[in-house]
Amino acid sequence: xxxxxLGSKQRMTSTYxxxxxxxxxxxxxxxxxxxxxxxxxxDGYWAxxxxxxxxxxxxxxxxxxxxxxxxxxENQKTTPLYLREIRLNxxxxxxxxxxxxxxxxxxxGDTVSVTGVSKGKGFAGVVKRWKFSGGPKTxxxxxxxxxxxxxxxxxTPGRVYKGKKMAGRMGGDKTTVRNLKVALLDSEKxxxxxxxxxxxxxxxxxxxxxxxxxxxxxxxxxxxxxAEVTNE
Length: 232
What we know:
Elements: E1 4-17, E2 20-29, E3 32-38, H1 40-43, E4 46-52, E5 55-56, H2 62-67, E6 78-79, E7 82-88, E8 99-100, E9 111-117, E10 122-124, H3 126-130, E11 168-170, E12 174-186, E13 191-195, E14 205-212, H4 215-223
Antiparallel strand pairs: 1-2, 1-14, 2-13, 3-4, 3-8, 4-7, 5-6, 9-12, 9-14, 10-11, 12-13
């Protein structure tokens, strides 16, 4: 079963969950289109390739246009902007060209993990990058407030160990935030509200994966009543 969808980060807002005000990040999640399917016999594992966003066909390479030929209709002027592979545990029921909607995967209360590329901060010192406390502010130390201090020993080992925390480029890394909750869901506008902040700038590509289903929805199915009116 497909448990992942692609989206883009939108604005932040807030909502109330069980009389508690929580911050929420809105995500334009889907709709996505299946552009390719990998099989166990041919590729050794099950996977689908999702396409999200739009761009003009003329801006895509000839190789990419040929790859997306099976999902591009006649006289269509746009093609997916992003392509990402999603691994599966079993053979998918959908086929190439089928759409994956937000409501097909998520419900309110689900636990999700969100993966994106964090904001780039440029070259940063150790205080900003690694939260170093810096040097003393008194006793004549006029230029060591944000200095890294010692970076190693002398004769032994006679070098700086790899991985030493020093100044350098900060941000722009693939980041995953786990154990977030689906607080808002608008199927008509394909908007998903996720509790808490998520990585990346506005309009950045995100991969939203459902980790576990809502217990509220399980209770609703047992009692045969809508999930929105149940109270855990």
